[in-house]
Design a protein that fits this description.
Layout (H helix, E strand, L loop, with lengths): L4 E2 L10 H13 L9 H21 L6 E4 L2 H18 L11 E5 L4 H14 L2 E5 L9 H7 L4 E7 L11 H10 L3 E5 L11 H4 L3 E5 L10 E5 L14 H4 L7 H15 L3 H20 L5 E4 L11 E6 L4 H10 L2 E2 L15 H6 L6 E5 L6 H22 L1
Parallel strand pairs: 1-11, 3-4, 3-5, 5-6, 6-7
Antiparallel strand pairs: 2-8, 7-8, 9-10, 10-12
Length: 392
């Protein structure tokens, strides 16, 4: 085997050729502000709106429900900020005069949890974090029990970004709707890997990102249910129908749209998910034969994202394993997403009650091959054995 094996698609996946091809004319020739009425502006407006339609089609949403953002992190922050400010303007959440209340699961992405914590420190919002079981799954009854008259928002991810566990979103949405509470679903890890219909989801807000499904970095979206009005996080312009200020990155949005259109072709998403699941199954079968390696998340692969595998490795720290694999031409990930520079213990695994200091995350994507997985499964036992012998 030659070259390197890139197995960190859950962090960011390569740009699809169709996305690059769609972006190049925008970058080269179509530079105008899409908010202008001259011919050049109208050309870029058409490209932007076509991208919006393509993203909406993949996600089962109306085009007008798609608000383009610069990242999934921005989309999640906008959801939390907007819901909290909407409740404060209404008198404190749920029509009361007390503090606004927000609910989140313990395994949400740091973009969601940090946005909730900021709401607590800046406007006095009260935050309830609901725990999860050993597979990383939240109990819908526990979320329902956390709701109050002052609850403004429930945050629940569609699937976990680190262990892949798919969450029981439907009963959580139902419980919140019965009480008139808005729901934000973080689908950044799942969009493009699981079928997703915003209409059928029933949520009020949904954050998605393009770079995890073959679109460019810098293109993401917040889906806002038709009829819901929330204050924008980014102000200073009436772009995105006054829901997000600032000129749109048209080229990035067009690339996002092209990637969405490719995935939205008949059977394409399902075929890619099956191929990813087969590669992950190969990796899982091989690593289970190595002593002291555990698989985290739902024990049933059908309860996890198809392209992701999280492992616990006994007896060695994550950083030397990562470096050893990298030296052998294999790129994987460890620790908390967005905390990799510090290699911090995983807060997701901490919430699950498992070893948070010795985790590896392997994730495949649209261009992964069996050779990539074979390179990983050949290298991992060698690296782990070598490190364990040093400790001994």
């Amino acid at each position: 085997m030659t070259g390197r094996a890139y197995l960190d698609h859950a962090s960011s996946t390569p740009l699809r050729p169709a996305a690059l091809e769609a972006m190049l004319p925008i970058l080269a020739d179509h530079h105008a502000d899409p908010g202008r009425v001259h011919t050049e502006g109208r050309v870029t407006r058409v490209a932007l709106e076509q991208a919006r339609e393509q993203v909406a089609a993949l996600l089962g949403a109306r085009p007008r429900e798609v608000v383009f953002t610069s990242s999934g992190t921005e989309a999640a922050n906008a959801a939390v900020w907007g819901a909290v400010e909407r409740a404060r303007a209404a008198g404190g959440g749920g029509g009361t005069h007390g503090a606004v209340h927000v609910v989140a699961t313990a395994v949400e992405h740091s973009a969601v949890l940090d946005a909730c914590r900021r709401a607590a420190t800046t406007v006095g919002a009260e935050v309830t974090v609901v725990g999860v079981d050993g597979s990383g799954r939240v109990d819908p009854a526990a979320v329902a029990a956390a709701l109050r008259p002052s609850t403004a928002l429930v945050n629940v991810q569609l699937a976990n970004h680190e262990v892949g566990t798919i969450q029981p979103v439907a009963p959580i949405v139902d419980a919140a709707r019965e009480r008139g509470v808005a729901v934000h679903v973080d689908a950044c890890a799942a969009a493009g890997h699981l079928p997703l219909s915003f209409a059928e989801l029933g949520a009020d807000l949904c954050s998605v990102t393009g770079h995890k499904l073959g679109g460019p970095k810098g293109a993401a979206a917040l889906l806002i249910r038709r009829g819901l009005r929330i204050p924008p996080l980014v102000v200073g312009g009436a772009q995105e129908r006054a829901r997000r200020g600032g000129i749109e990155d048209v080229a990035a949005a067009v690339g996002f749209g092209a990637a969405a259109a490719e995935l939205g072709a008949a059977g394409r998403l399902e075929a890619e998910a099956r191929a990813a699941a087969e590669l992950v199954a190969r990796a899982e079968s091989a690593v289970r034969a190595v002593d002291g390696i555990h698989v985290y998340g739902d024990p049933d692969p059908g309860g996890r994202l198809p392209h992701l595998l999280c492992l616990g490795v006994e007896g060695v720290e994550a950083e030397p394993v990562l470096l050893g694999l990298d030296q052998r031409g294999v790129a994987v990930h460890s620790g908390s997403s967005c905390s990799s520079e510090a290699l911090e213990p995983s807060p997701v695994l901490t919430a699950m009650g498992v070893d948070a200091d010795h985790s590896l995350r392997l994730s495949v994507g649209w261009d992964s091959t069996p050779a990539d997985v074979e390179r990983f499964t050949a290298a991992l036992p060698e690296v782990v054995a070598g490190l364990r012998s040093l400790r001994a």
